[in-house]
Amino acid sequence: MIGLWRLLLHLLPASLREAHGAEMTAMLRHDLGRARGAGALVVFVTASVDLVWNAAVAHVEATALDLRDVWRSARRAPGFATSVVVVTAIGVGAATAAFSLADHVLLRPLPFAAPEALVKLWQDQTSRGYSRMELSPGNFEDWRAQSSAFQSMSAYAAGSANAMTPAGPLRLDTAQVSTTLFDTLGVRAALGRTLLAADDAAVATPPVVLSDHVWRSTFAASPGVLGTTVSLNGTAHVVVGVMPAWFEFPTRDVDLWLPLRFVPDDLTDRANVYLRVVARLRPGVTIAQARADLNVVAAGLARTFPEANAQTGATVVALRDEVPRQSRTMLLALAGASVAVLLIACANLASLFLARSVARQRELAVRLAMGARPRRLARQVLTESLALAAAGGGLGAVLAIAIVPAAAALVPTALPVAEAPEADLRMLGLAALATLATGFGFGLVPAWRIARAAGGALRHGARVFGTRGTERLRGLFVASEVAATVVLLVTVGLFLKALWQVQEIDPGFDPRGVVTARTTLPLPTYEAVAARGRFYQQVLDEVRATPGVESAAYTSFLPMVMGGGIWPVLLPGTTVPEDARAASVRFVTPGYFATMRVPLLRGRDVADTDRQDAQYVAIVSRSFAELYWPGQDPLGRHFSTALQERMVVGVVGDVRVRGLERESEPQVYLPAPQVPDGGLAFYMPKDLVVRVSTSPASIVPAVRAAVMRADPQQPLSDVQLMTDVVERQMASRSTQLSVLAAFAGVALLLALVGIHSLLAYVVAARTQEIGVRMALGATRGQVLGLVARRAAWLAAFGVAAGVVVAYATSRSVQALLVGISAADAGTYLAAVTAAVVTTLLGSAWPAWRATQVDPVAAMRAE
Amino acid sequence: MDTFVPDDSTTASLLPLPPATFHILLAVADQDRHGYAIIHEVAARTDGAMTLSAGTLYRSIQRMVELDLIEETAERPAPDLDDERRRYYRITAFGREVARAEAQRLQTLVRIARTCGLAPRTA
Asked: In CATH, what is the architecture of B15-115?
């Protein structure tokens, strides 16, 4: 029993145990000796409970005492406490925000049942450069029927619909989905039901499931919405359910879900690839096994339908991994940058604390002389650092919660997760972890040094902190701050150059002064080309007549908004490899090139005379002409695409259809009327482009009125400036850059503070030495040199290490640098210069102070 | 002695005293005592109403030493009565002042209670 008691004694604070442990044990022995039988057990248990309770109280009391000391010393030196709290807040805030984003995008499981079994399926046509191609309905049905690796497989396609709602005509984003989709994902409706297998049957009023935000914004969150009908593209649909707010599949902007239906024609055209597929693996099946299984199915289909399916395999990826490689790299870079900031913060704080411990040398010595134990003092120093870290950490968590939504542009839209992580326990846990790391990071070193200075030496007036040793240690901290700063500056410089590079890319059109809006005409009302033509003509006539409008036109899709819409090009006898025979096809009305300022290089624009009954013609881009007829006149040449043979009547400049940073297929523009009635509905012109000479916003009401007069049921959506479309191409880059720049700015500032405080400390600690030197004839210049040499060494070490690490870091983010070399000399030079200037700035004041030392006063103090 | 004596531990800031602290002060007011003796003395003075546990006793002693209310004394009793593990404590001048102030505080309380008819007229 006494052995157990001695163990329990260790629960007491060391000082209490050492002072009174033996007596307490003696007392227990005495009481046990007087007890009889079971009484002894009662005595022991009572004493043990008492011991545990009092140990807890003693710890709380000691901590309270320490905290009171912290509070007192914070009031005595508010500058110190404030800088510790602020620096910690910045470090913790940055780290928490960056890691929350990375966690949200890369690590956190998706909000579906057993998400690890969910996979995305693609057609693999690597030979043609596409490892992730959508599926055709026919292939999807065959994959689903013939593979055995999946519990369920569901397809979906994005679309949009004109809805007549209580809030007026609205353009809504839809997802047409296999009725099995909700089962595949394992989600239930928040209200009513999801789609069921029975919904596959064709009925007069098909079902529709609403998203939470449409339910709230358009249907006033009324539970009575179930069973009501809503008109979508002129067809009544019955509302059967409302999904929960968190359900954002396949994308964040989907407004409603409709059953995906195929007509027999859909199933025969295997070149018509537009379905995305999500599937749930059977229990125990791995992704590799699923891929092998699908590849067997695909090989069979390739034999049966060689024309569309030759050399087509299957790609299977975990749904969780549907993060573009660039987003992944970027987030990791951010996490790295935040770690750098956190480390700089820690180094800075450790340096601050070390300096402060030296300043408190006398106080520490007095305490030790009065019998305080080094361990207790160390505990106090650690309590102080942890308490200040906790204050800073709390502030940092608030900072992180504020920062995260601003960085939401870094969350890829391809992932069915919310735009930004919400502040939750996980995020706060991260903040707490970062705080703890910081608190220990900067508290442990000084505490360790005190604890190591076991009594003796210090009591006799020696110092805990040898000035030289402390200087060396702080010098190391400061040099590493400089190094980390160089790394961040180089990274920011490279990203800035990359952004400039992207900004310099010519989109192929002039977005300035162009307003766009969308009118997606519903079928079957507008199935006939003539009906559509009347609508376009009326709207365009009215818009063109509006004061301030220079020109206006319609196109199938805006460049950069829609990158797809690719058709194979058929040209007998061509030597162009089959894989390259594809074009980005758009139907346009006359005036499109003038409005977008796409240069017309040869021939003519589409004209009103290019009717359904006239010669089918095409305007091609320069790259198209050069690909098929190099060195020859393309005008008058014939080729087939989009179901018809066409004759080239004009050549225009190339446009970056797929985006500023991507290669685009050569472009083909076709007159809007030259398509059979009911054909190619997907390509029906829907985007209106208007070039204005006045304020773009001012003509929007006129456009809206024109559409209203042409068709009162027709909603107008997606009103935006073409410049915004182009800028959005750079949005994630700009966000990345501003976040990194903020990190680098903070790092620079922290390094400045670190260098300054170290040198100020060095000068203060060596005042006497400097005084003696000056008395012995040292000039001001020599004294200045003393401080400057010190600063130069710090800068040299820091910069050298920084450049090496920066190069390694930049190599790892090379993918994001659009061809800028990771060893870009200019960037390194700029970063190094900034770091050196910072060092000089940080050393200026201490150096000046050193030259102002009065030799007489300094030596008198000696 | 473990902590720097806080500079604001004035008499007033320590009042009211925890009962255990006050009893310990009273127990060492007339003579130096060791821990076990303090427990006995307190129990005897209160007719067993207050029995300090070993944990409470030593935690209180530790804190009282830190606050300079009592101090450990180097004077030991005659060797045949002594046990070398024992530590003896004595009240300090500051401790005496605090104890007096606490007694005064209690006296004032009793006087108020008396005017309200809640305490007998004679002590």
From this structure: Orthogonal Bundle (1.10)
